[in-house]
Specification:
By secondary structure, the protein is α+β, with helices and mostly antiparallel strands. It contains 15 helices and 26 strands. The protein has 3 domains: 189 residues, Beta-galactosidase, Chain A, domain 5 (Distorted Sandwich), CATH 2.70.98.40; 103 residues, no CATH class; 157 residues, Glycosyltransferase, CATH 1.50.10.10. The protein is 32% helix and 21% strand. A hairpin with a 6-residue loop joins β6 and β7. The relative contact order is 0.10.
């Protein structure tokens, strides 16, 4: 049975990642990529679906864990009456192949351990053929997949598992290395786990040394950045929303989605978070991934893609898995890839604009692509869509979608005005104004004093917290203030923000989900813009308190149970945390960078002289 979501740690090699529980069990690992079928799937089922346990035999052992400095190397200190040992776990970086290393080092006295290895390919459904090799290693083969375990500990077969007991004494270490390979190729070569540890630590420390600081929240932000870095697929630059699938938005519910893909809606916030922290290389690789993924006909643009830019992402269910906390169905793939979400056009155009505004690029190589996207958007912007939250209850004229259509044409206009590009400037200006008028007329409810989720509706939506952040209206506009205050009144639970009220909004799914953490950070940003600095800091502090002992956040938080819900760790939550920290700590705020408020202030100031 899986632990609470917040009891898991992540280790990764920037191509895939493992979730390791506080109990010492690797309960989730997809090999060789984030989106590959899992070989350990206890997280979504039972131990028979695969796990790798490494635990002290003393049931009263005390375990404390932490990441080693600014790295993704997990260290767990085990204390028993007989002694102390440290378990160090990591996935080596910059080493040929993909490996999971677990080192057990004796610190004082003697500590007894046991290990249990249960490999099940294809999300816990396929049992491999396990053989011991002449060199003492264990090889597990099924179909194309091969795992090799190398250790001095002699694991013995017991039923359909392999188990062993061993002890550590002061000054000695026991090493386990699990390596992935293809079954039709030579087995992955052995690595020196101790040299791999040194190399991996140097790699992470060199990366984190680039960090430019975030004032009083520097330690918080660097940990969020390290988590975000772990979710970047190094070969392509694509960033997965999370390394997991089907962790529920409500325990026992059906809002269970596969997040092991790359969403366009995260583009601009991701760019700003990376650029402001000093990681221009990662920001540029993300931008290049966007350009490659978008290649082709504009009408074929998707809202999400595979980590290398793949388009075909069929959704299927895995009925043999009981689901986390019996939350079914368990899904692999995501049918939202086929939805129409107009907001992605604004995200993409804004990402290109911001990357040039911040001098990430200087050429105009992507301008033709932007023009083609806007040409296509002009033909579809008046259509209803599924919206940012990917509802499955039918298309509507979502207000936020229309706002991001405005953003797309606004960034097109700004690109011509500021960078000298060639395009239909007057036409886009007129269209931008038409869209703005349409939204203000149909998306704003005078009785509520707020913008609503969709045209003609009465329901609120937390995506409208982005109105001022993207520059659609200035924060001092009474309609912005009214929308923020209405969301505070109607969408907050225990001080945190829900996306919308699932009890009244017909989104095609049963009601119920937690507070959405990214939306709660967006409220922090709005409070900053509205001059409510103390309120912003208080809410930010409460959000930071939700992080796990390792500084990790899921997609949502359930105030009723006090537990994290949704896929974990969630890139969007960490990106929102980073941007909110900079909004609170820096004069050059991401919310003003994106909205253009700083640029307008500079223009107004220059006009006085």
């Amino acid at each position: 049975m899986a632990l609470n979501i917040e009891d898991y740690a992540i280790v990764g090699d920037c191509e895939t990642a493992a979730l390791i529980g506080r109990d010492g069990s690797v309960d989730w690992l997809c090999w060789p990529r984030f989106d590959s079928p899992a070989c350990f799937a206890n997280l979504l089922g039972a131990r028979e679906n695969g796990r790798w346990l490494l635990e002290p035999t003393d049931p009263n052992a005390k375990a404390t864990r932490a990441y080693r400095g600014h790295t993704l190397i997990l260290e767990t200190t085990i204390e028993t009456e007989g002694g102390v040992a440290v378990v160090t776990e990591f996935m080596p970086t910059k080493i040929r192949g993909s490996h999971l290393v677990r080192l057990v080092r004796g610190v004082r006295g003697s500590v007894d351990f046991r290990t249990e290895l249960i490999i099940r390919y294809y999300y816990g459904s396929v049992m491999p053929w396990v053989r011991r090799q002449d060199d003492g290693s264990l090889q597990a083969v099924a179909g194309p997949d091969l795992l090799v375990l190398r250790t001095a500990v002699n694991l013995r077969p017991e039923g359909r598992t392999h188990v062993a007991e061993f002890s550590t004494v002061e000054g000695e270490s026991v090493a386990f290395t699990l390596s992935y390979g293809l079954s039709y190729q030579d087995a992955p070569r052995a690595i020196d786990p101790f040299k791999a540890l040194e190399q991996t630590e140097r790699t992470w420390l060199a990366w984190s040394a680039t960090f430019e600081g975030a004032g009083p929240w520097s330690e918080v932000v660097i940990r969020a950045l390290l988590t975000l870095r772990a979710l970047i697929f190094q070969p392509s630059g694509g960033i997965v929303a999370a390394p997991t699938t089907s962790l529920p938005e409500q325990l026992g519910g059906s809002r269970n989605w596969d997040y092991r893909f790359c969403w366009l809606r995260d583009a601009t916030f991701t760019l700003l978070a990376l650029m402001n922290a000093g990681y221009a290389n990662e920001a540029n690789k993300w931008r290049e991934w966007l350009i490659r993924a978008l290649g082709g006909e504009p009408e074929l643009v998707q809202i999400l893609y595979g980590i290398a830019g793949e388009r075909g992402i069929p959704e299927r269910t895995l009925p043999w898995l009981s689901g986390y906390a019996n939350s079914q169905p368990v899904r692999a793939g995501n049918a939202a890839a086929g939805q129409l979400q107009l907001d992605i056009y604004g995200e993409v155009l804004d990402a290109f604009y911001q990357s040039r505004k911040h001098r990430l690029v200087t050429d105009a190589a992507d301008w033709m692509l932007q023009c083609e996207l806007l040409k296509h958007l002009e033909t579809i912007w008046e259509q209803p869509d599924e919206g940012i939250w990917e509802v499955r209850g039918g298309r509507r004229h979502f207000t936020y979608s229309k706002i991001m259509v405005w953003v797309a044409f606004d960034r097109g206009v700004r690109s011509i005005e500021e960078f000298g590009f060639v395009g239909p400037l007057d036409h886009w200006r007129r269209l931008r104004q038409t869209i703005h008028d349409d939204i203000c007329q149909k998306g704003f409810d005078p009785e509520l004093g707020a913008f609503t989720q969709s045209y003609g509706a009465k329901e609120l939506d937390a995506s409208l917290l982005l109105i001022a952040l993207v520059g659609f209206l200035p924060p001092e506009d009474p309609r912005v203030r009214g929308t923020v205050e209405a969301i505070e009144r109607c969408l907050m639970v225990d001080g945190f923000v829900r996306r919308y009220d699932t009890r009244v909004v017909k989104d095609g799914l049963p009601a119920g989900e937690g507070a959405f953490l990214a939306c709660s950070f967006w409220l922090v940003d709005n409070l900053v813009l509205l001059g409510r600095s103390e309120d912003a800091r208080r809410l930010f502090a409460r959000l930071l308190a939700l992080r796990t002992d390792l500084g990790l956040l899921a997609e949502e938080y359930d105030p009723a149970t006090g537990r994290m819900v949704g896929n974990f760790p969630q890139a969007f939550s960490h990106i929102a945390l980073i941007n909110s920290a900079y909004n609170l700590a820096h004069a050059d705020k991401p919310c003003e960078q994106r909205s253009g408020a700083k640029s307008r202030e500079e223009e107004d100031s220059s006009a006085l002289f």
